[in-house]
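COURSE: Structural Biology Practicum
ASSIGNMENT: Worksheet 4, Part C
STUDENT ID: 0417
INSTRUCTIONS: Below are two proteins. For each, the amino acid sequence is given first, followed by its structure token string. Answer the questions at the end about the second protein only.

PROTEIN I
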Amino acid sequence: MLLLYKIGIFLYSIIVRLVSPFNEKARQFVVGRKSWRISLQNQVEKDVSYIWFHCASLGAFEQGRPVMEEIKKQFPEYKIALTFFSPSGYEVRKNYDGADIISYLPLDTKSNARAFIDIIKPEKVFFIKYEFWYFYISELKKQKIPLYIISAIFRENQQFFKNTVWGKWYRETLFKFEHFFVQNETSAKLLKSIGLNNISVSGDTRFDRVAEIVKAAKKIPVVEKFKNNELLIIAGSTWKPDEELLIEFINQTPNIKFIIAPHEVSDVNINRIHQLLKKPAISYSKVDETEISNYQVLIIDSIGLLSSLYQYGNVAYIGGGFGVGIHNILEAATFGMPVIFGPNYLKFKEAVDLISNGGAFSITNSNELVARINRLISDEKSLKISSQNSKNYVEKNVGSTKIIIKKVFNNDNLLD
């Protein structure tokens, strides 16, 4: 099985290189890993203790961030090394000031893993949610460096829990972790079913992150003027299928303000949205404050604003549910907004939970979207209850970071 794994990694590296001239993310993936040893050695400080965090992408970064920042606060003697597998995380957070070293993770080969770990010499390591790289995990175990996984979710259909040759081989990597911090009891039971007991049900660290977002939300005067005390629906991280449904609704709806913050902010996509809209619309980069209240739609054509925008909304629509899965709904929920999204949400525990408590709603077509929004905005009591359900859900689930820090650093007095 190890040979097949090596072949798989090798083939992946070849395919990425072949497509890199034609695909921007593949190009970033390849270029970002060139001369990584020299780059890493130049960043590492001598006589310094590092804690290494590895995230697959931007979403996982948001789960690791509360723990990173709490360690920096509680234990300033440590430096933080942060790695990403995907360009979607690295390119957005390569200048994040909460980490001292930020790098792509070299591909999972035996030599790469040994070299990377020998250069960083981490004292502790945190992988976020789903990362299970065989050679890195094996090398950390060999060097007796404790490896933790945080905000992890396990499902019965994962390879670890299958009695296949591949499943049994891959399962062995789990026994090399120091401790599992999982999101729910189901994950804990699955791990216990294969003989693992080094488990804490600590929840999802993203709740701690979004709780901080409320405190740090920046006022945006131009959005206050745009809203002008009217009902405001905020559509965040939308893709084309989401935008087509929303714009159909917007074009037939007066007296409601809309903000669309698309996932793709290229000029081509922003222009496409403008062309579909029949209502007065303006891009954020072209806003004239004196006239902003005359527009019905504000299109966000930059990144970094969305989490602060939610403070002004009454209802949120979160994109991705007509694709591989929904984007972050907790940022909207923490501000007490009912959340609407497409049908592909079942892999997201927070979405399932919020639907069950009446704080979120899934739709599959334009008729359902229209019916749901109209029901919320026409019934003040219903809107208030759904809003409170969302806010309460986030507040009830904060505290994962505290559990992790206490367990890892063996000190029950921390953060009290």
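PROTEIN II
(use this one for the questions)
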Amino acid sequence: MKVRAISDLHLASAVNRDALEALADHGDDWLIVAGDVGEKFEHQRFAFETLTRRFARVIWVPGNHDLWAIPEEPGARPMAGQERYNALVDCARSFGVITPEDPYPVFDGAGGARLIAPLFLLYDYSFRPDHVSRDEMIAWAREGNAVCADETFLAPDPWSSREAWCAHRIAVSEARLTALPPDLPTILVNHYPLRADLITIPRIPRFVPWCGTRQTEDWHRRFNASVVISGHLHTRRTDWRDGTRFEEVSLGYPRQWDQRRGIAPYLRDIWPPPMASAST
């Protein structure tokens, strides 16, 4: 019995959909899906129906692609902002998937109990370099061909800006985490990395403003995190900060993973820790 994680399934791709459908049953294992399932609700439903049949419990957080205001049908009114997020939560719940709006579950298996906290925090552009002002940021990113499509597709309605929506989500999440028992270790899950020093994207280095917020830099210490999970960057890696393991668990677009292997090898073992898991 393990907790595993993956993100950035990007199910608009038929290759990724076929690979997900071919995934074997994982019995009593839990799965964390750290955002970017796909741009349409048909992608979300396909993922949730498929994964809840293969894992004992599925936990989900939204990514930016999930929140894009994309019409489900040509000419249809796209849902955006908070309305879209609420509809995504309802969709997940209809399959029994745990969302950031639900009570945090506790995984109590080998390695000791860990509370899993799915978070929806967004970003506030504060990861941009200190010498780049907010007003100059888009032009600076455009020089590096790195302007995020969120600027076109991710509407913050009814908030005045993505920064305002991010501030609201931080306040909501911080209050919930602060109320947790301080002696219960956690696994924090967010689509975006919680720290700027975890971002390694040499192909588009000026993409960093769309990757998180400086306000969460110490959350792994404040909230007793054994592991912090994120996606978004499409750079699978493990990092350590202050004794906490940080896992970037993206699958990515078809060109970014080995299709001959299938999806299973890209499921990251989260808890128990890989070494402990290998010995039990």
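ANSWER KEY EXCERPT:
Q1: The chain has one domain: 3-278.
Q2: The radius of gyration is 18 Å.
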